Amino acid sequence: AREAGKQGFTDPATSPGGLSVNNALLARLRTPSEGSTETNPLGAGAGNYGYWAPHVDKANVQGYDVTAVLYLSTAGEHFEGGEFAFNDEDGFDRLVEARAGRLLLFDSGFDNLHQVYPVRSGERLALSVWFSRCEIGRA
Q: In angstroms, rounded to a whole number, what is the distance separating the alpha carbons of residues 64 and 90?
């Protein structure tokens, strides 16, 4: 607990200004069903949400302030495709290569529009954790 406190992951009741876990998800992503990416290329059409839809975490859940993704599988070894992409305003996606044990940490706000490209084969495993900032005076 002492080491966690040094990193800013604290008990919000006793240490305002730290981070607290808001939510977590263990995800196993597979190849979308046949035709899904053709009929729904952005992953968000006609009420049929696909995991490959570009999104902002804070837009989905207002309380998300920091996002962490821990990769549990490795691209090229356990799966093909499934790249994590930051969708930048310049029209170029910044890709993160998945490697088991790699931790991706970023602000959950509107500066970080992102998506996961569709998995082409295998299974992509990752643990996502969303944190909320603890405001001073909030306990």
A: 25
CB-based contacts of 2, cutoff 8 Å, min separation 6: none
Measuring CA to CA, how many Å separate 113 from each of 8, 59, 60, 122, 134? Answer: 25, 10, 12, 25, 23
Alpha carbon distance 104, 64 (integer Å): 15
User: How far, in Å, are 23, 63, 104, 133 from residue 20 at the CA level?
Assistant: 9, 11, 17, 7
- Given a contact cutoff of 8 angstroms between Cβ atoms, the answer to whether 65 and 18 are in contact is no
Tokens found for residue 94: 């910044």
pLDDT of residue 4: 46
| 80-128 tens-digit pLDDT | 999 999 999 999 999 999 999 999 999 999 999 999 999 999 999 999 9
